[in-house]
Amino acid sequence: MIRVANEQANQIPFSLFVSLLHRIANIPAHNTSSRVTACRSPAGILAKWVENLQNNYSPLPRNTTTHVFSLLFPEEDSHRKYDLQEARLSQLLPDCLDTSTFPPTSTARLKQWNKQQNSGCLGQEIFALQSSNAEPFIGPKSLQDINVLLDELASTSAFSDKTLHADYSLSPPRSKSSILKSLFESLPALDAAYLTQIILKDLRPILYAPPVASTSRALLEYNTNSKSVLTKEQFMKTWDPSGSMLKMYRTRANITEAALCFEAGGAIAHPRPRWGVPVEIPKSAKGRSPKHALNVLRSSSTIWAETKYDGERAQIHVRFRGQGDPQITIFSKSKRDSTMDRVAVHPIIMEALTGYSMGDIILDAEMIAYSDDRRRIEEFWHIRGLIARTAVGARAGGYRRGETQHDSRTQDSCPSLHSNSSTASTLHLALVFFDVLQVGAASMLNAPYYMRRSLLESIITLVPGRSMLADRTIIIDGQVRQAEGQKRLRETWAKRITEYEEGLVLKASDSTYGDWKLPWVKLKKDYVPGYGDTIDLVVIAAAWEKDRARELRVSTSTLTTFYIAVLSNSSQMNIDPGCKPHFIAYFTASYGLSREQLEEFNFWIRADAVDGPKPSVDELCYTYNMLQTLPKPSVFVRNPILVELYGAGFTKAPQSKYYELRFPRITKPFRPSERSYMECLTLRDLWAIALEAVGREAHDATKYKDLDEWGRVLWGKLGDETAEEQRRELKRQRSIACWEERLENIDRERSRKRRKADLEMSP
Questions:
Q1: Contact at 8 Å (CB) between 595 and 552?
Q2: Domain 284-514 classification at class level
Q3: CA distance 670 to 648
Q4: Residues in CB range of 375: below 8 A, 6 or more apart
Q5: What is the value of pTM for the model shown?
Q6: What class is the 533-698 domain?
Q7: Helix axes 255-263, 64-72, angle to 10 degrees
Q8: Distance of alpha carbon 171 from alpha carbon 179, whole angstroms
Q9: pLDDT tens digits for 530-548?
Q10: Cα–Cα dist 25/46, whole Å
Q11: Domain 2-239: CATH class, spelled out
Q12: Cα–Cα distance for residue pair 650/444, rounded to 1 Å
């Protein structure tokens, strides 16, 4: 009883944790030229706070490490999902906030969150609602109290970890509203503000708020480095100077596992992966040219190029339990447990492991869409539909095939652009395996790549169209010099581009998994300036989008996201020059422009803007339709603005029948005096470009009697098949030669400029 009483007396107030957050938030923004002292950096403030915590609360209560870690980085807390975003939470909180701190008359304004101007940060809005005579105080709740209630709140979500559902399965479930009342009861305004952002899983807008409200000042006088950001690696190094916690996290990318390692005194000197706990996925370097990519791995004598397939990452854990059925767990790239989403690949996994008998195993693979008819990997966007049709549980049926509503205006006819798949019945999910991380009790993370690959080849049973190994080519070995290696790499990359693969990943033969000295190097054509897919379309609307705004550190007055549209009635305009152009807006672009360009583009749009999500037809010089799944814009432009867009191939969004650029970036907006918005692509032009880019030939359907005949020609099933095959092979060889020449020019240009580029890493 005495021990329990002491534990309760030693509980850490949640308000003390909030004081850490508030000190970090109060660090003033600085120019990049000014130096930040250690004590005024987030890491410096954290170090002082941890020292104070240990002095006053030692020994720390059990699970303190887990509690602090998960609350400081709520976005990393993959176990807890709350199904709450600003729109819904703002409706629930007025009835949950403590009335002694927040007058009901002021909290009622929260329900108008979407209908009025606000800071873009719900936590800040809540703090501003406190009573004018409210005094700061230390709240009654402890870190443990808050975490227990957050666990209960997460148990109401079907997307939370199944262990949370089990913990609360015996007691009658409470509603979200009831749990929120318990969470916010008696909380000071500051605690309530930060807790709100923790529930929203995003502390950025309150920790690293925009330094000023003005668009011009925020974009021109500051940048993303104006406020230092605390990283989880900095936290782990500060909390555990021995490094055991960080070492464990890299092996078991789970907050609880890393925290338990620290609280056990770093007893596990050499951590190894554990079944059912995701392994941290290493970052890769971006290769800017063949020469640049090889230079990153110049200290290795043997380098391989693996094909990078366009799919979804799947980290596969399989546990063999005697005579019982094996247990499969699959983690996505974001460490989310996606086992039941990907139930369709479970039989494929077991087929691939038919001859395996060495105990538990962890494999790295890419989940792709495969067409039996075409005997090839299909486009990335097919994966969503296949998962939705085969998933079990919360995400089943999440994708609904459909189209945006269009009016009766005449639109250009593009049959293949509208088609979602002509071979849907033969499409299925498949796996391409490329690494092995654990075999039995043996960790393979520190084994060299050549050993892991050899072991993988001995384990996986290949089944064409179902379980495959990543294709690879030797680029440099003991017999090949650097210049010859560059030539080989150019040839290999050119072939992959021509075959419409996503790219290559270079791997040093002697590199370990996650080797920071010899990292994997990705080569994708859009990583090379000027070599991605480029098209001209128009911007017809814009909005402030929270994620992009929080990256840029700008307020809601700044337009960050632009609605891209294509001309859809060019044929009608040729017949009737007096009709208005009709545009279809079906995707957005938030990247590409520098801060200076974005500031200028904001000025252009504001000067010609019509406020509101739905302007009248008379206010615009055009008509439009917009994909219904897009968020509503805040302004439209009276006259569309022509922009040059750059991307990484083409894809289709859910409920859209049109191809759009993947990872679109605006590279240049054009003034009306430079180029007219009527120079943008038409729907038919875009259709032809997209089909060519994804490897489908765009013949003119009007040359044939009907669409069925056109389709047969598209797939080479009409006329002389031999001649058609020869034509395609000649086209392929010409494309390879063209890309080899382009890549050689890139290498030559880099050599001439002797460019020393910083190594950029990507997930």
A1: yes
A2: alpha beta
A3: 22
A4: 465
A5: 0.89
A6: mainly beta
A7: 140
A8: 14
A9: 788 999 999 999 999 999 9
A10: 12
A11: mainly alpha
A12: 36
